[in-house]
Amino acid sequence: MYRKLAVATAAVATLLSGTATAAIAAPAAPVTKAAAPAAAEIPSVVDVTSANYNQVMEWSKTKPVVLDFTASWCYWCQKQKPYLQQYNTQDKGAWVWAKVDVDQNPSISRQYSVRGIPALLNIRNGKEAGSRMVGFDGPTSLRNWLNRL
């Protein structure tokens, strides 16, 4: 009880002495909501589902997103996977590797009319931009496609 009284007395004395009046008189700056997340908040690799699809499309407004339509049983998808990982690491997260499992997310596959896998789509501003890469023609072809993001 005595401690609370002492703290309250000190606060009143500070207010009356004028040292805190500048802080009280100055209005607080309005808080604004950021339009897009900072690049540091966007992961470089993400598994896309219908639950987080809209969030991934928001990220594409800040940095390129590569939608990677893949499946665990797909031989060429598995051959391409380590190169995508290597290039994503080399590029230091300049683009988001967004993996879409076609078996678990058929609606997303249908939305982009994906008929064959592996299929890579360049997404910017929530829309497909540029060319697709369907199939795996080797690491050089993949690197060249990624360089055009």
Account of the 3D structure:
With 149 residues, the protein is of the alpha/beta class. The protein contains six helices and six strands. The chain has helices spanning 2-17, 21-25, 53-59, 75-90, 106-111, 139-147; strands at residues 45-48, 65-70, 96-101, 119-124, 127-128, 133-134. Strands 1, 2, 3, 4, 5 and 6 form a six-stranded mixed beta sheet that branches. α4 (75-90) crosses α6. The longest helix is centred in the first third of the chain and has 16 residues, at 2-17. It is globular. The model is unreliable at 1-17 and 19-37 (pLDDT under 50).
Class computed from helices, strands and strand pairing: alpha/beta
Percent of residues in beta strands? 15-25%
Low-confidence stretches: 1-17, 19-37
Number of helices: 6
Shape: globular
Write the layout of secondary structure elements.
Blueprint lengths: L1 H16 L3 H5 L19 E4 L4 H7 L5 E6 L4 H16 L5 E6 L4 H6 L7 E6 L2 E2 L4 E2 L4 H9 L2
Parallel strand pairs: 1-3, 2-3
Antiparallel strand pairs: 2-4, 4-5, 4-6
Question: Could you name the key traits of this structure?
Answer:
149 residues; six-stranded mixed beta sheet; 17% strand; globular
Care to give the gist of this entry?
By secondary structure, the chain is of the alpha/beta class. The chain contains six helices and six strands; from the N terminus they run ααβαβαβαβββα.
